[in-house]
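Example (one chain per record):
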Amino acid sequence: MQTHDIKVHPSKALLKREDQLAWKIAGVAADKVAVQKDVQEMIINRIIDNASVAVAAINRRPVTSARDMALGHAKKGGATVFGMKNTVRVSPEWAAWANGTAVRELDFHDTFLAADYSHPGDNIPPVLAVAQTMEKSGKDLIRGLATGYEIQIDLVRAICLHEHRVDHIAHLCPSAAAGVGTLLGLKQDVIFQAVQQALHTSISFRQSRKGEISSWKAFAPAHAGKLAIEAVDRAMRGEGAPNPIYEGEDSVIAWVLNGRTQADSKGRKTVYDPTYYHVPLPGAGEAKRAIMDSYTKEHSAEYQSQALIDLAFKMKADIAESGRKLEDIAKIVIHTSHHTHYVIGTGAQDPQKMDPKASRETLDHSIMYIFTVALQDGSWHHVDSYAPKRAGRKDTVALWHKIETIEDPEWTRKYHSKDPNELSFGGKVEIFFQDGSKLVDELGVANAHPNGARPFARAEYIHKFRTLTDGILTAREINRFLADVQDLAKIPAGELHVLNVTLPAGTLAEGKPGIF
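Predicted structure:
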């Protein structure tokens, strides 16, 4: 990997495009380096994972709305829409919108956490939609997705958007544009313009994940995928983009990420922050392996809750073995990282995270609620664990309100560790009982994490798919999809529609009418 130092430059510096981050990203995308075998296999795993969670969410209202909108943009020879017959085709940006929403709705697919947050599987819907429309092959799709994962993960390693309250789709849209560029074999200068357009159009703010969290949490990455496809389309037609989009004096770094201030201490002139971002990217001819550093979810909840859900299961058993009862708990304190405390913990200071009438989207960003239900039930379900009746249970609310989170510098350090064997996303839990005794335990990574007790491999991805699609897809369709996707590299050009999944006739919900 090569590390690139990125900072703001005044316009008079005439920063060469070869020195711009967008150009370097485009160079990685244009590099025709082969995709290594284990990376190909992991891409297949993640396509299976995406299909699993999309089918499980297929008739939820946001997914139904997105699908209905997409169906208003039919295109002969276009892309497929999850749940629909393969003969139904829509314009690729709208397929990315519908399918991306389905994938993201349950907050149940892959993740990468570093300087910022990401769900790199969000690259799959837009790249696949373009691949279907442009009649590409399975090998082409593999190459495009290797790039999408690489670019998003590398940006997330280096540039923190959250501290500036910018939503993480600002890394996703450029990565999806780069992935589409690789898929189509575009030249570096075309991808360069597409990446810049993608970033420029995708800046939005973290309020989508604060307070009363709405369905926009699912729509946001789908919107980024849609914008990425549109950016590539414009660039292919010869259109340019704001430049330099990362480093310019009125750029994203300059104003959105606080890379400059308007005046010095005497109010005389613009002052440029000397702080650099250090972005790692593969060098020329270097394999794109970033997907191997990402991980999926066993439980349908914010990733930073995964290890704590597993820990809750264990502590429930330990409490029972000790002869104590959950009703004897006086207080629970979760010692965890800065991100966990401030995003899904009491450090967020969101009263909605303690409200039994809060939306599902809010509850899956409340570790207080999640730990309570996991501790009481000893299990987790993507529907039942969030049901209003479940959230409103009197004993649940009582225990829920006894939980607080505290940032622990050591857990924050491990959260940002460069050592993959030390990297941790869990915490230490202290359960205090009314008799003065306490139970203490900790878990650094989820059981399903590559370093966890039961790492996910192909068998676990297939089990997740079969579990989540049971009763929704026919057994024949389940087996057909699993056979086709595992043979991805051999799918010929023009046949990628086999990666769609079709529900039985009459089982897809319809939403409220809109403009489309």
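Caption: The chain has 19 helices and eleven strands.
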